[in-house]
Amino acid sequence: MKRRRLLLLCIPIVVAAALAACGAPGGGDDDEGSATEETTGPATGTLVIGGTEAGYMDAVVEGFKESHPDIDVQYSTLGVNFEGGGIQTLLRSGSGPDVLLVNSGPGRVGLLSEAGLIRPLDDVYEEFHLDDVYEPWITDQIRAQGDGTIYEIVEGVGVYQVYYNKKIFEDAGIEPPQTWDDFLSNCTTLRDAGVLPIVAGVRDNFAGGWMLGQLLQSSAGTDTMADVIYNGGEFAQPDVLRGAEMLKALLDQGCIDGSAAAALDALQAKAAFIDGQGAMAFVAQELPGEAEKAGANRDDFGSFSMPSRDSSRPATPTAGLGYSWVMNADTENVPAAKAWMEWVASEDYLRLTAENGLVQVPARTIPDGVDIDESLANSAEARNDGAGFNPSVYLESGVVDAYYAAIQGLFTGQLSPQQAMEQIDAARR
Amino acid sequence: MRAAGSGPPRRRRVWGYVTPLLLLAPSLIFYGVFVLQPLVKSVELSFTDWDGAAPTLNYVGLDNYAQLIGDDRFLLALGRTVIWSALYIALAVGGGLLFAALITELRRGQALVRALAFLPHALALAVTGVIWAQLFHPNIGAINAGLEAMHLGGLAQAWLGEPLLALPSVAVSSGWHAYGFYMVIFLASMQTIDPQLYEAAAIDGAGGWHRFRHVTLPGLHNATTVVLTLATINSLKGFDAVWAMTGGGPAYATEIVAVYIWRVAFQVGELGLAAAASVILTIIVLAFTIGFNRNRDRRAV
Amino acid sequence: MRTASHRRHPALLVAVIVITGATLYPFAWVVFGAFKSQQEIFGSPLLLPQEWRWDNFATAWTTGNFGHYFANSMMVALAVTVLEVAVACPAGYAFAKTRLRNHAWVFYVYLFGLTLPVQAIIIPLFYQLQSYGLVNSRTGLSLVIVATAVPFAVFLMRSFFRDLPDAMVEAARIDGANEWKIFWRVMLPMATPGLLALAVFSFLGAWNEFLLALLLLTDDASRTLPLGLVRFQSEMTANYGALFAGIVLAMIPSVLVYVALQRSFIRGLSAGSVK
């Protein structure tokens, strides 16, 4: 009886084999044949928009409805991210929105275009003359990423610097640093005064990416980093490796609490920084605005770019495309989706976002008469003086994962800088 | 056992299966369509390099299995799963048994205590994860704050940020969620133990531990088999709490096989590889269940 | 009855109280946190709130979409409960009281499902449901939950029916009742406690389901409560008061259902598993 039990367990497999003969995944249900889409014509019908939690979303959707009364707009917040795999699954399900806002870059948008999940937008760029509207470097970057094809309309840019709590700096008698040594000695002064020098939260990866990106930029400079990012230069080369060693030094000297950083996510770390629980944070342009929203005084926070290790190079911020609008490859209403893209690129759209809590540096040129938040304007200026790269945005998908894994390994002390950088290089091969 | 009787005529015998099979049919349809069919498909996919988009399947033989066996990340995930199961069983089953032994001695209030201890199990495991992520929070968490209030601030940790502590911390939350469940089973089983056995032990002058070891535990043999089987299966499937608390981090420290499968399948899109991992997980669960139950059956005789 | 040697030990009572208290403390802590301001959460995480402020609940309710998630969860859980009982009850009876019980191998097919990790089926399942148009659909999720719970439900119902005396079946048979009538008129009414236990199990199981919901529900409109809470956590991750309030909102329905039905739940568990 007992021996038979084992044999009998095979029976379900046989039963199901018969059942499975019918529905093969990917086999019967792909709708590649239905590609005869209407790409021109009047924009009517239904448009499903997938947005984010950004404060201005309701305003811009309302604005679109007003100017396009013939389109039945359905808006929903996706609340899914690439790191969780939600967007890919949503688009694969065939029930995703027509247009949606996602993280920019080859590791994100590139992942979708390679899988054929989003539609090329060259015709949109041409039809609405978007070359004239966007900063040239942005158009260049997205065209290069798609091997000459454009897949995204960039919504905003992130510009990363070191933000500091002016009061804590004052109490400790220190000034924003001019050199890496200044920076280190600031950290140790703060540490000895019982203040946490740097608040970090890398649990959800990307803030760790910002931080290491700034250190790599400080160590290697824009040209070397451009070579690493675009031409496959090695992360383990001495100049770049030194950036990872800088992170290790900060961890070893107690300037960052590595395991607390690994337990916190980016928003929690930011909240702790705004609450005054640490002196510095490697974050983006929205920090002063968010401090104000949280009831703190935005003028209590200053910013500086990480000093360069090479005195002949100026300190520069890092930057990267933030969010982009993409069009679902399966969309049945291309004209309406195009109308949305035209709206996204418009001056009115920018004005509405600026009035309703814009947090990123606009990718679009800022026309006279549109006022944007002071810290965003400053960041735009800093960026236009030349900026390095936020690697998370520019690395391919498998490599971004390795980059994040290397950062977590550094923060938790499981990887040496050498090992961490070599792992990223290994993922590229 | 079926009573021995005169065999009915052959036609009636066949006919007599119609009603039972009709009674069985609805469940078999659900089970066949949504469980067995995808299971077979999983096995098939595990021999392909399907990425979720390709219109046809490309068979690669045992490549995925070979890749998994040579992949440190997968092997570490397997190892972590074993540790995770051990922790889960120690906390949830051990805790449940201990608490059942305690409250079975209570004369009043037993039902109330039992109901309260079971309460966490009414929550979704994912909700439990969200709650415990806050309890373990390095800045606002009750655990660090509690340690500090007891002047043990030195023991305060970033529980979910330390690679060595993250998995045990998640196991604590799952233990909290589940121990009441196993306790109820143990308690019910304890109440079926003949009280005379306890009296005999008491006459022999046996202490509390002795009674537990020599009367209670043997009396719980069957319940223990059921509970250990259930708990192991549950822990090997474990996903919800880990996903809600750490997502597999920091730096893979809580990436058990269930999380590995999810990440490889739905974040990286290597569905064939993930399917192979899921087949391996299934074989392990199955082998354990059969082996463990056979062994227990034999020992019981 | 217990003898004098079983007299309660004070240490026993203390241990029981401490463990029960530790079990309940997380609930209390979350509820207190839900009434605190951000500054208070950072400053005094352990204590009672200084004043009981409700604005965290307002934030959680308006931005968290909990009413919507609640409705989704309720629909899924009710559908699963009804279907599960309808499907598992006849099967359990068939295995316990009809001539199928002499064919153990059929039952092993179901037992096999009891050990099967869901991970083994999720990948094809997603694409299968997509081809049926059942992704992002509460119907799709309900059907799948019913199917994955079939083995346990059948197992449970089989043990309930097995405890009912065979004599009743025989007597009915002699009275000329057919198999169907015996099941429907004679056995089913007697198995009511078992049915209730199964209903409670199914409801809570569906209410708390996470992995399948994560797999099959990717748009906000169809999300269930656990999924909604995890999403809410990732958005409110640093607005602790609102996060706590959201947790409380997500906990309330489970706790209420449990408190109302805990007797049949615990009885069902005790009866179903010890055998």
Structure commentary:
The complex is a heterotrimer of chains A (429), B (301) and C (275). With 429 residues, chain A is an alpha/beta fold. Chain A has 20 helices and 9 strands. In chain A, strands 1, 2, 3, 4, 5, 6, 7, 8 and 9 form a 9-stranded mixed sheet that branches. Chain B has 301 residues and is an all-alpha fold. Chain B has 14 helices and no strands. Chain B has helices at residues 10-15, 18-45, 63-69, 72-103, 110-118, 125-135, 142-149, 163-190, 195-203, 208-219, 221-237, 240-245, 257-268, 271-300. Mean pLDDT of chain B is 88; it is low at 1-7. With 275 residues, chain C is mainly α. Chain C is 78% helix and 0% strand. The longest helix of chain C has 35 residues, at 240-274. Chain C starts with 9 loop residues before the first helix and ends with a helix. Residues 1-6 of chain C have low confidence and may be disordered. Chains in contact: A-B, A-C, B-C.
Features:
heterotrimer, A: 429 residues, D-Maltodextrin-Binding Protein, domain 2, nine-stranded mixed sheet, 9 strands, B: 301 residues, mainly alpha, MetI-like fold, disordered N terminus
Using the CA coordinates, give the radius of gyration of chain B: 24 Å
What is the helix/strand order of chain C?
HHHHHHHHHHHHH
User: What fraction of the residues of chain C are assigned to beta strands by DSSP?
Assistant: under 5%
Please report the total strand number of chain B as a whole number: 0
Helix fraction of chain B, binned, reads over 70%
- The CATH superfamily label of chain B reads MetI-like
Biggest interface and residues each:
B-C, 99 and 101 residues
Specify the overall morphology of chain B: globular
Number of helices of chain C: 13
Unreliable segments of chain B (pLDDT under 50, ≥5 consecutive)? 1-7
Distance between the termini of chain C: 24 Å
Largest sheet features of chain C = none
In short:
The complex is a heterotrimer of chains A (about 425), B (about 300) and C (about 280). Chain A has about 425 residues and is α/β, with parallel strands linked by helices.
List the helices and strands and how they pair.
The complex is a heterotrimer of chains A (429), B (301) and C (275).
Chain A: H1 2-8, H2 11-20, E1 45-51, H3 57-67, E2 71-77, H4 86-92, E3 99-103, H5 109-114, H6 122-127, H7 136-145, E4 153-165, H8 166-172, H9 180-192, H10 206-231, H11 238-252, H12 258-263, H13 266-274, E5 280-284, H14 287-293, E6 301-304, E7 318-327, H15 334-344, H16 347-355, E8 361-362, H17 374-384, E9 388-389, H18 391-394, H19 397-411, H20 417-428
Parallel strand pairs in A: 1-2, 1-3, 7-9
Antiparallel strand pairs in A: 3-7, 4-5, 4-6, 4-7, 4-8
Helix pairs in contact in A: 10-11, 10-19, 11-20, 19-20
Chain B: H1 10-15, H2 18-45, H3 63-69, H4 72-103, H5 110-118, H6 125-135, H7 142-149, H8 163-190, H9 195-203, H10 208-219, H11 221-237, H12 240-245, H13 257-268, H14 271-300
Helix pairs in contact in B: 3-14, 4-8, 4-11, 5-8, 6-8, 8-11, 11-14, 13-14
Chain C: H1 10-34, H2 38-43, H3 55-64, H4 66-97, H5 104-115, H6 119-131, H7 138-163, H8 166-174, H9 179-190, H10 192-208, H11 211-216, H12 225-235, H13 240-274
Helix pairs in contact in C: 1-13, 3-13, 4-7, 4-10, 4-12, 5-7, 7-10, 8-9, 10-13, 12-13
